[in-house]
Amino acid sequence: MRFGRCGSAWLVLLPWVAVSLPSQTRVPDSGNAVTTVQAKVRIVLVDVVVTSGKGDPVTGLHKEDFDVLEDGKPQTIASFTEHQGAPPTQIKLPPMPPNVYTNYPLTQTADSVNVLLLDALNTPTRDQTYVHSEMIKYLRTIPPGTRVAIFTLASRLRMLQGMTTDSSELLAVLNDKKGAAGAHQSGLLASGVENDANQRLIDFMLENAGTTSTPQTLALAAVDPINAMKQFVADTAAFQTESRTRITLQALQQLARYLSEVPGRKNVIWFSGSFPVGILPDPDLPDPFAEIKDFQQDVRKTTALLTAAQVALYPIAAEGLAPDSQYEANGAEIGEKRGTMVTRDQIRDLRTERADRDSSHAIMETMAKDTGGQAYYNTNGLNDVLARVINNGTRYYTLSYSPTDKATDGKYRRIQVKLITGKDKLAYRRGYYADDLQAVLAAGQKQDSDPLLPLMGRNLPDYTQILYKVRVVPTNPQPPPDGPHIGSNTELKGPITRYGVDFAISEQDLKLDLAPDGVRHGAIEVMLVAYDGEGKPLNFVVTESKILMKPRVYEALEKVGLQLHKEIDVPAGEIYLRTGIYDRNASTAGTLGVPLSPAPFARAQ
């Protein structure tokens, strides 16, 4: 075997990797082709939630009760399964040697899991407090055995609690006043006070500018100070919206990768004040279309990952009932403005607020339908909504079919599922793009961005698209005190410990293209990030390697896995090491966190 080099990438044969892991069945999804030696067969999976007129789940249906169509053409249902909330089963791994860890998932079967996503990035502080109290109210009465994880989104995605059926653990996380579950002011979401201050400044300029009956030309409008101020405010808001949009979509993509190897349906219950994708023009600006950004490719990528991971998105508007601010008691006081300006501002604010809400709700509806979930807004009963989502999301039907149209042309295929009899309501994803998931992930990828880096955060879960074992031990001998450091941080101070990190990677999880001469080609990235006890990054190592694997070597590696050795220097103290593998051919990842401290390592499952 030969490796290309970026940093160091050495093949090391290690005896400790003889410990085997149980085989893991990979379930095909709508975004990935199931590869055989001769051909590619696309299998489309569709989860269907059937509810009655009262909103209760309908159970006991059979394959013969459903019709499935793609672009209006009938499809043959290949498999059919009813899920009724069966509890997960745990797998016990064989004993690992000392200092050896694995990201192999211990939970192998479950009908569904639930992820609560608290969005502080896109939600005003007062609405966060309301959502927090409603979640606590629900978790106090959650049905036993319900599997839940909690994530937050602020400047980045964080996992507060991994998958658990223990409601006391969930409540402890939410009640921790020093934790990240509390309300936080978003740095990219303007407050009502800031918006009022900007509008008052524009109103002041209007009041002192006088009026003219001469219509302005576009050239005069461009240099008009009032229009310039409006454009400055709009540019600032547009920058914040664009930043929030990209962070939000990246967080959903990270969740999809994490959940991709979790068995069963994944219900992501996303509490948000808004989804910041601008789809409507602003008629108050000289150029109404100037601030609209096209996130179609990013939304498509996010939806493809969520769909491939069997994730259903349930956006819930965090504001509850949403009255217009003009009718609230803290609205503009009478007498502060001329009557004509008060009327004008009220009409403008009503129009803007309703347009923003309609835009946000439309995006929520679209993403919910695209993934088979449901959007909820204009409701004060978030506790009841949460109970309904989890109850219905654990009772569903999984249908699969092989499309009669075999073309992989990237076009959108519309899915329609019907009940042959009855008028019950069906929730399911409404379509998919007939292209390769890896092509979607690679589309629009910036050359200067690293797809593995966003998955290496200190508080992110372990990703299991690529399974591996890793041994982490201090090297022997240690480097001299005055020797060069390994890693991007060459300014490390104090006593330094060099750790050797030995990987054994499951070759079945890597996409290795087979050439006519029998040699398999691949490309992987390996990353190490060391954090201190407070989550501050201390050192960083990244290498990229090209794989050229002859048939004889590939046969040998099927028994022990692909083995790599890396090293990193870390200072004294409590250190948390994140390890990661990224397959550039398949756009899949695996990560694992290991504490380099006397405290035992316990990964949340």
Walkthrough of the structure:
The strands form seven sheets. Strands 1, 23, 24, 25, 27 and 28 form a six-stranded antiparallel sheet that branches. This protein has 605 residues and is of the alpha+beta class. It has ten helices and 28 strands. The protein is globular. The chain folds into three domains: 170 residues, Sandwich (Immunoglobulin-like); 95 residues, Immunoglobulin-like (Sandwich), CATH 2.60.40; 240 residues, von Willebrand factor, type A domain (Rossmann fold, 3-Layer(aba) Sandwich), CATH 3.40.50. Strand 13 and strand 14 form a beta hairpin.
Helical amount: 25-40%
Please tell me the overall pLDDT: 76
Described by strand count, sense and barrel closure, the largest sheet is: 6 strands, antiparallel
CATH topology of the largest domain, by name, is Rossmann fold
Number of domains: 3
Number of helical segments? 10
CATH superfamily of the largest domain: von Willebrand factor, type A domain
Give the amount of beta strand, in percent.
25-35%
Structural class: alpha+beta
Could you say what the CATH architecture of the largest domain is? 3-Layer(aba) Sandwich
Gyration radius over CA: 27 Å
Shape: globular
Q: Can you tell me the residue ranges where pLDDT is under 50 for at least 5 consecutive residues?
A: 1-40, 278-283, 329-335, 598-605
| Text of the CATH class of the largest domain | Alpha Beta
Distance between the termini: 35 Å
Q: How many β strands by DSSP?
A: 28
